[in-house]
Amino acid sequence: MTDDRISHYLCIGCPLGCRLEVEEDARDTIVEVRGWSCKKGERYGRQEHTDPRRMVTTTVGIEGAALARLPVKTSQPVPKGQVTEVCRLLRTLKVSAPVRMGDVVLADIAGSGADVVATRDLS
Ligand code: SF4
Questions:
Q1: Which of 50, 101, 97 has the alpha carbon at shortest distance from 73?
Q2: Could you tell which of 36, 39, 42, 48 is best to mutate to test the pocket of ligand 1, judged by most ligand atoms within 8 Å of the CB?
Q3: 73 CA → ligand 1 middle, Å
Q4: What's the pLDDT score for residue 2?
Q5: Which residues does residue 70 pair with via DSSP β-bridges, in sequence order?
Q6: Integer Cα distance of 27 and 10 in angstroms
Q7: Phi and psi at residue 54, to the nearest 5°
Q8: Does the beta carbon of 84 lie inside 6 Å of ligand 1?
Q9: What is the mean pLDDT of each run of 10 residues along the chain (123 residues)?
């Protein structure tokens, strides 16, 4: 086994931060994930190797509220390659008060399948 068939990741599932190794065969098929201390880490290693995703948390502009910015997050992790586009779209988004925590302020952002939801009330 040559090292170029082994990729290294840091599990972010909990503060322990296990160091993961994902080994592929010559057909780019994962044959083993090593280094995890629980199954969550094994799943994370496979996901990170094949389809890395990230939650996006930020703020967007809001009109008619006591504060100028509304904190929001994506309803699910979005593909890592779409994070920049998601942030670009959110930079120009402006919503109107009142907003309730959990309200969808933008559905299916960038075609990612994730909605953008408010994480607090703003009246
Ligand atoms: S593998 Fe499990 S124990 Fe290790 S960092 Fe990930 S979630 Fe935590």
A1: 101
A2: 36
A3: 24
A4: 53
A5: 60
A6: 24
A7: -140, 145
A8: no
A9: 83 97 95 98 97 97 96 97 97 97 98 97 95
Select from 16, 9, 78 the least CA-distant residue to 42.
9
pLDDT value of position 10: 98
For residue 38, give the ligand 1 atom closest to its CA: 2
Domain ranges for the chain: 3-51, 57-118
Residue whose Cα lies nearest atom 8 of ligand 1: it is 14
DSSP 8-state class, residue 99: B
- With a 6 Å cutoff on the Cβ, whether 35 touches ligand 1 is no
CA distance 109 to 116: 7
**Per 3-state DSSP, what percentage of the chain is helix, strand, and coil (rounded to 5)?**
25, 35, 40
Query: For 57-118, which CATH superfamily applies?
Result: CPE0013-like (3.10.530.10)
